Amino acid sequence: MSRPFSMGKRADGGSARRFTVPAPKGQRVSLPPNHRATVNGESLFPSRVMHASVLPRLLIGGHNAAKIGKDVRKGRWNGMPVFTLTLEERATCPATCRQWAGCYGNNMHLARRVIADETFERRLWAELAVLHSAHPAGFVVRLHILGDFYSLDYVRLWDRALEAFPALRVFGYTAHDPDGEIGSELLGLTLDRWDRFALRFSGWGMDELGAEVIDAAEDVPHGAFVCPAQTGKTERCGTCGLCWETRRPVAFLRH
Known about the structure:
255 residues
């Protein structure tokens, strides 16, 4: 897919000092540069990385993730059930990710990561077909709880899935540079199909379709909103919907 235009990045790369956010809760785990996981580009928890052939399912109901929720309760996707997909962090991510060492997957020792290979892609397609039949009025897939788009072919799999399964909706985040090979393909897909494919680019200072990680002492970037599920303004993604309703950048408290 060709990219229709270049999405501008913030010129100053800074923040407008408008208001600050509350301190995030929980321990932050940032790995040293010489750690096995950062050097090899893999999960901190290798025993939780599993092949698709041994798993009962790849797409997990959103009720298993408290921050996500089992369904959407407002907005254009209201009433649709939510499913999540988790890949291996770092192994499927661009090495340029700003959160390479401090990935929140470092705190997720129970998360089940799926190995990305041909078996995974075949199983994923089959599960999407089942969900499309079960939820013809619409269903939502959250990409990716951990991990990222690991190849152009994988990006194009989701493009084909949107064509094959009209009930499918997708939202998520990527660390890919929107000017890079994979990132530009993702940006084009997002711009072409924003009503069904709401993707945001993390750490690139974009005025639209952006996502940033912030610390308690930092200010919210100009024009951004802080994730309401993190600040207690709503219960979960399903009761919010801003990430697929508005193109304004979102700021997440580091966790």
